[in-house]
From TrEMBL:
Name of the protein described by the UniProt record: Hydroxymethylpyrimidine/phosphomethylpyrimidine kinase 2
Domain Pyridoxamine kinase/Phosphomethylpyrimidine kinase intervals: 2-135, 172-256
PANTHER family found in the cross-reference section: HYDROXYMETHYLPYRIMIDINE_PHOSPHOMETHYLPYRIMIDINE KINASE THI20-RELATED, PHOSPHOMETHYLPYRIMIDINE KINASE
Pfam families: Phos_pyr_kin, TENA_THI-4
GO molecular function: hydroxymethylpyrimidine kinase activity; phosphomethylpyrimidine kinase activity
Gene Ontology terms: biological process: thiamine biosynthetic process
Domain of life: Eukaryota
Species assigned in the record: Rhizoctonia solani
GO cellular component assignments: cytosol
SUPFAM superfamilies, alphabetized: Heme oxygenase-like, Ribokinase-like
Domain Thiaminase-2/PQQC: 288-510
Length: 512
């Protein structure tokens, strides 16, 4: 027998079952497993993909085999991975009974009672939104019993600037939710119930998605991962296989199973991750990024509660920083190897020069004279940030310098977009009107622009389009010359240092 030959020849680390079709086939598998792994001999982790109903809704298992799966095969399993119709069959429910997150959670708990170590109910058949997941989280009385893992660029903590083309509100975005139920969460994961949430992909490349996921789970178990970590790895692999799948022929096409074996530091762009390079930079230090874009200086500006002396103190140092920012873009022009690159950098320098006069005029409204601006001592936070950017420019190439100035562009765009989307208080807010900075590739006409509304302008169309151009530039550079591991680590280090320096600059603003 073929199965027996494999068992005799190779020390197995994991086992997966697929489409078993009928009772005789299932009986053969059960007899073989029980003979080779008698009581007292440990069986490798067994992943059961019940394959009762296909993604397209076709029945794939004779009804006579259903009881055998539930009563004899499932108790042997490390994990069972039914889709929603299969979960309904396993529980004896009517078709269409599982339609909500609550019913998915109940189904996962019910199936777990059949004896598997872990149960993963796949939610591709159900349509949910980010708002549905957030609403469920609010109803949980015990937060330790439910863990939500947002993945593939979705979720409330994901940078808004990575979704510039998405006009839907966050809560309305469609997602797929898989529900993992663990019988022993202390050993196997982080909570009894874990939700794996990712964007719903509009694609016809879905042939074999369940088989792909269960195979990926078996590989993860073979590496020694626990059920939770195995699910993290397998769902991410499967999602990317769908997202990067080639469109072949008509109907439901195949997945891209080879995406993970191609040596790429930066993944290919997909509809749900159009900016993989910038996404990789931001997600290389997510905690720092949140500290930057949710800084108390920003939140107090949004609420209109920032002390006036702090704002004036900040404006003075920002004027000094503008001089260095202009110098950095002058250096970028010198470093550029194309006319377009040199021209873009030179244009930004001219914008900054015009902005400096706007800054002087604006400071006058806060009682700061031009003489006071010019005589203000440069503080350590300003000097450290400016000198580091210039140092990067002198030591590295133009791409490193682009990354060094990018944290300012992306951070201000993120803050503006977030505050505008959240309905920040602008009525009567003394910081509502603030000059709009001509950051990286901005096309703001500063000659005719009065002091603009800070929240509305940084979150508005014009600045967000400027941000898109900056992001597109970085993505094009990364795609044209894909960074090696060491090169990306170098760029990542520059990015992280500049994010830290941006935080330090706002820290300084709070301490006049």
């Amino acid at each position: 027998m073929q199965i027996q030959c494999v068992l005799d020849d190779i020390p197995l680390q994991a086992i997966k079952t697929g489409m078993l079709a009928d009772a005789p086939t299932l009986q053969t598998i059960l007899q073989t497993l029980k003979a080779f792994y008698p009581e007292g001999k440990a069986m490798p982790p067994l992943v059961i993909d019940p394959v009762m109903v296909s993604t397209s809704g076709h029945s794939l298992l004779e009804s006579s085999a259903n009881a055998l799966i539930k009563e004899e095969l499932v108790p042997l399993a490390a994990m069972i991975t039914p889709n929603v119709p299969e979960a309904e069959l396993l529980l004896g429910l009517e078709r269409g009974s599982i339609t909500s997150l609550d019913t998915m959670l109940s189904a996962a708990e019910g199936i777990s009672k059949l004896g598997a170590r872990a149960t993963l109910v796949k939610g591709g058949h159900c349509k949910f939104s980010v708002g549905d997941v957030l609403a469920l989280a609010k109803t949980q009385q015990d937060p330790d019993s439910l863990y939500i893992r947002w993945d593939a660029g979705i979720g409330p903590d994901q940078p808004a600037i990575l979704h510039l083309d998405n006009t839907e509100a966050l809560e309305q975005q469609d997602v797929v939710v898989d529900v993992l139920y663990l019988r022993n969460p202390k050993e196997d994961g982080v909570a009894k119930i874990a939700l794996f949430v990712r964007p719903r992909l509009e694609t016809t490349s879905t042939h074999g998605t369940g088989c792909t996921l269960s195979a990926a789970l078996a590989c993860a178990f073979a590496q020694g991962l626990n059920p939770f970590d195995a699910t993290v790895q397998a769902t991410r692999y499967s999602h990317q296989a769908i997202a990067t799948a080639p469109r072949i022929g008509k109907g439901h096409g195949p997945l891209n199973h080879g995406h993970s074996i191609v040596a790429r530091i930066i993944p290919q762009p997909t509809p749900v991750n159009p900016y993989p390079f910038v996404s990789a930079l931001i997600n290389s230090c997510p905690g720092l990024w949140r500290d930057y874009v949710e800084h108390p200086f920003v939140t107090q500006i949004a609420a209109g509660t920032l002390p006036a002396e702090s704002f004036v103190h900040y404006l003075k140092q920002d004027y000094i920083y503008l001089k260095h920012y202009a110098r950095a873009h002058g250096l970028l022009a010198a470093k550029s190897v194309t006319f377009s690159g040199a021209g873009a950098a030179a244009t930004i320098v001219l914008h900054i020069v015009r902005e400096s006069q706007m800054h002087v005029d604006y400071c006058a409204k806060w009682g700061v004279t031009p003489k006071e601006l010019e005589s203000t001592p440069e503080l350590p936070a300003t000097a450290a940030y400016a000198r580091y950017i210039m140092d990067v420019g002198y030591q590295g190439d133009d791409f490193m310098l682009i990354i060094a100035v990018a944290s300012c562009l992306l951070g201000y765009a993120e803050v503006g977009k977030r505050l505008l989307a959240a309905g920040a208080n602008t009525e009567g807010n003394p910081y509502k009107r603030w000059e709009m900075r001509s950051l990286a590739n901005s096309r703001v006409d500063t000659d005719s622009c009065e002091p603009a509304r800070w929240i509305e302008d940084y979150g508005g169309v014009e600045f967000q389009e400027a941000t898109r151009r900056g992001i597109d530039l970085m993505e094009q550079r990364a795609a044209h010359d894909p960074p090696s591991t060491s090169r990306f680590a170098q760029l990542q280090d520059v990015w992280e240092r500049c994010v830290r320096l941006e935080i330090g600059f706002w820290d300084m603003g709070l301490k006049p």
